[in-house]
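Lab notebook, bench 4. The sequencing result for the construct came back, and we need a structural model before the next group meeting so we can plan mutations. Quick request posted to the team channel:

Model the 3D structure of this chain.
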Amino acid sequence: MGIHHSSTDYYTSGSRSRNGGETPRSSPGSIGDRDAGWWRRAVLYEVYLRSFADSDGDGVGDLTGLRQHLPALAELGVDALWITPFYPSPMADHGYDVADHRDVDPLFGGLADLDALLADAAEAGLAVLVDLVPNHSSSVHPAFQAALAAPPGGPERELYIFRDGRGPDGSEPPNNWMSVFGGPAWTRVPDGQWYLHLFDTGQPDWNWDHPAVRADHEATLRFWLDRGVDGFRIDVSHGLVKDGELRDNPPGPVLDDSGFREEGEPRVWDQDGVHEIYRTWRAITDEYTARDGRPRVLIGETWVRDPARLARYVRPDELHLTFSFSLLTAPWSASAWRTVIDTERMALAAVGAPATWVLANHDVVRPVTRYGGGEV
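Done. Here's the predicted structure in token form:
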């Protein structure tokens, strides 16, 4: 999550280059021809939907615009598309504040447009992964509105993380956790309680200890799988489960903006309990794969610096892939890149997973600016 300001980027799975080394990657062809391990060698193309292609002239990219350009993407050699959120949203964070996880915002079209896109993509041999946002909802989500209307201690509040404040009058946040966007990760409501939001105040965090939250997200997975998606890019995949006691993070230096926060905020990120969730989700995608032989894929946006900890997310019964963000923070040096690549490949090989290298995405400055100041 973060500031979104670009439209498209490549991600590659596996260790070989696009144009050399080992055996050249072959196009997957139609869905029926796609082999079981296609995702290990795939080129995934991020489509930042609102700035990709505008079909109706309203200044915002949409599903029909993307649909019109599928042949060009296939011609580029792309295997799969990751489409950023298109769900109903007040757009406090460019769609990552989701008000309804099972519909399409009119800004981008409707469910019929999504169905048509999936059909055309399948014909073009392109897999489609949609962006799943499970860490939080929008503050206008009906469940959160019900929580706000409920009294402290009401069952509606249990779906989110509401707590009393500290201090004699409860006027201080429940703990010292900070929002990724700056400031405390807690906002106080009129009755005096506070709710947790690791991102914007309009993005309250779900309580993943509640069985109803887990069941609802499993229903969301099935909703989109039933419509024909090939899998999911999972937003903030390392953040769903929090420290059970909501203990303070240890004091330390101000965190940088690299994206890796688990070392300075060990009570918030990369909690062991998240792996149970992904084992459940993997069982669901494996169920759909077994029905028709078409592999469904789970890929995590996992900002975890330690390669050994990162590899735990892609054990054989969890996610298929997880983004490898380490190159985003490596200096522009051949030896530094070699060290990062070798270390991460070794850790991932121990669990039988390929690396998915990231050089840019919608959260970071483009490579030409990061490495050359835009001039070289």
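Confidence is low (pLDDT under 50) at residues 1-8, 15-29.
Will bring this to the meeting.
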